[in-house]
C-alpha cells in the first residue's frame, strides 16, 4: 500500500474514533502538513465518506451521518470486542429476526482480520466454554425493535399487532416506557391507555409496531426492568404460594430472585433486635411445587407456610428424607 493511501486510511480511523479533530492535531498524527490533511479529507469525500468540515478558530474535521456506512477501521482490540460481542449476543438469544445478519457481519470482519489476529481469535474461541446452554431463538423483527426503541426515546405512542401466548390476536395502543432484555428475550413495558394499566409485552410476538402522532409523559422513577420481573413473578400459574420468612428481603432474594418471587419486608414492630427478628412476606406463582422445599431450606431461615396446604406435606417429606440420609453411615448395601 502506498504511503499516501495508508495515511488516508489512518485519517479515516482517527475520525471514526469520534469527536471533532483539528487540522493541526491531524497533521501531527499523520506527520504531514495541514494542506495535505485537507487533501486527504477531499479523498475521503470522493469515496462518499461523510467527512464534515467545521470552520472557525477551533474548527477541523469530523464524520457526519451518511446515507451509507463508510469503510470501517478497527484496531485489534476493537475487532476482537465486536466479534466476541456478536458471538455472545447470538448465544444469549438477543438478536433480531434477521439473525443471519450477525453471522454475515462476523464473517466479514473475520475475513479481513490479519492472520496473526485471526489466530488469536481462534485460540479464544477454541478455549471458550459456556456455563449455560444457548437460548432458544425468540428474536423480534428488526423493524419492530427499532420502532419501539424510537418511541421509548421520544415518548411517542405506538400501535402494535400482538399475538398472546394462547394464540389470541389483538391490535392495541401502547405508551412504551422502556425496553428490557431478559433471559434471551426482548420485552417492552408501558401503559395501555385503553384499560388504564401498565402492561408488558414480548417483542417477538409483535407482528407490527407503528408510531402514532402525539406524545405522552412516562411516570417519574419508573424502573422497566423491575416492572418486567414483577410481571413474571405475578403471572397466573397453577399454584399460588405465600410464605413468611424470618429474614430481610435482601437475604430472601439471594435464593428467590425478582423474576421468581415478590418479596415484601414486613415492619419489625420496634423489636430491640430488629435485624434478626425481621420477617419478609414471599409470594410466588408456580406450575410445580416439588422444587420449593429445597429452595426454602437453602434460605437457612425459619419460615411459615400460609398457602397452599399441599406445600406443608412436601416440606415435611423433604425434611424426613434429609434426616434419613444424615443417619446413614455408608452407602446402602446392594440387594
Structure description:
The protein has 335 residues and is of the alpha+beta class. It contains 12 helices and 12 strands. It has helices at 3-16, 23-30, 34-46, 76-92, 100-112, 115-127, 142-154, 224-233, 249-252, 274-277, 292-298, 309-327; strands at residues 21-22, 51-54, 60-63, 158-163, 169-182, 185-192, 197-202, 206-211, 239-246, 261-265, 279-286, 303-307. Strand 6 (185-192) and strand 7 (197-202) form a beta hairpin. The longest helix has 19 residues, at 309-327.
Number of strands: 12
Structural class: alpha+beta
Please state the CA-atom Rg, rounded to the nearest Å.
Answer: 29 Å
Q: What's the number of helices?
A: 12
Sheet with the most strands, sense and barrel status: 5 strands, antiparallel
Q: What is the element string, with H for helices and E for strands?
A: HEHHEEHHHHEEEEEHEHEHEHEH
Q: What characteristic shape results from the CA principal axes?
A: elongated
- N/C terminus separation: 79 Å
The poorly predicted ranges are none
Helical coverage, percent range: 40-55%
Name the strands of the widest sheet in spatial order.
Answer: 7-6-5-4-8
Strand residues, percent: 15-25%
Describe what is shown at a glance:
It contains twelve helices and twelve strands. It starts with a helix and ends in an 8-residue tail after the last helix. The model has no long low-confidence stretch (mean pLDDT 84).
Amino acid at each position: 500500500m502506498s504511503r499516501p493511501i495508508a495515511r488516508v486510511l489512518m485519517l479515516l480511523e482517527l475520525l471514526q474514533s469520534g469527536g471533532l479533530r483539528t487540522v493541526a492535531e491531524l497533521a501531527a498524527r499523520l506527520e504531514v502538513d495541514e494542506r495535505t490533511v485537507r487533501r486527504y479529507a477531499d479523498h475521503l469525500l470522493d469515496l462518499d465518506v461523510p467527512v464534515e468540515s467545521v470552520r472557525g478558530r477551533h474548527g477541523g474535521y469530523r464524520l457526519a451521518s451518511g446515507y451509507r456506512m463508510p469503510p470501517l477501521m478497527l484496531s485489534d482490540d476493537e475487532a476482537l470486542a465486536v466479534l466476541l460481542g456478536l458471538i455472545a449476543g447470538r448465544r444469549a438469544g438477543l438478536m433480531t429476526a434477521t439473525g443471519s445478519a450477525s453471522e454475515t457481519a462476523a464473517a466479514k470482519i473475520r475475513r479481513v482480520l490479519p492472520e496473526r489476529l485471526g489466530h488469536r481469535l481462534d485460540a479464544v474461541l477454541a478455549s471458550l466454554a459456556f456455563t449455560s446452554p444457548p437460548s432458544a431463538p425468540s428474536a423480534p423483527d428488526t423493524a419492530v425493535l427499532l420502532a419501539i426503541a424510537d418511541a421509548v426515546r421520544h415518548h411517542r405512542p405506538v400501535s402494535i399487532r400482538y399475538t398472546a401466548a394462547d394464540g389470541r390476536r389483538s391490535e392495541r395502543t401502547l405508551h412504551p416506557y422502556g425496553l428490557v432484555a431478559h433471559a434471551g428475550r426482548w420485552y417492552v413495558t408501558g401503559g395501555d391507555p385503553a384499560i388504564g394499566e401498565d402492561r408488558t409485552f414480548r417483542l417477538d410476538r409483535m407482528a407490527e409496531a407503528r408510531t402514532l402522532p402525539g406524545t405522552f409523559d412516562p411516570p417519574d422513577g419508573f424502573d422497566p426492568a423491575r416492572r418486567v420481573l414483577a410481571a413474571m413473578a405475578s403471572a397466573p400459574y397453577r399454584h399460588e404460594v405465600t410464605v413468611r420468612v424470618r429474614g430481610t428481603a435482601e437475604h430472601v432474594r439471594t435464593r428467590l430472585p425478582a423474576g421468581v418471587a415478590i418479596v415484601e419486608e414486613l415492619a419489625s414492630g420496634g423489636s430491640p433486635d430488629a435485624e434478626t427478628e425481621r420477617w419478609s412476606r414471599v409470594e410466588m406463582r408456580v406450575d410445580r411445587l416439588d422444587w420449593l422445599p429445597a429452595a426454602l431450606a437453602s434460605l437457612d431461615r425459619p419460615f411459615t407456610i400460609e398457602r397452599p396446604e399441599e406445600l406443608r406435606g412436601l416440606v415435611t417429606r423433604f425434611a424426613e428424607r434429609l434426616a434419613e440420609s444424615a443417619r446413614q453411615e455408608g452407602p446402602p448395601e446392594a440387594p
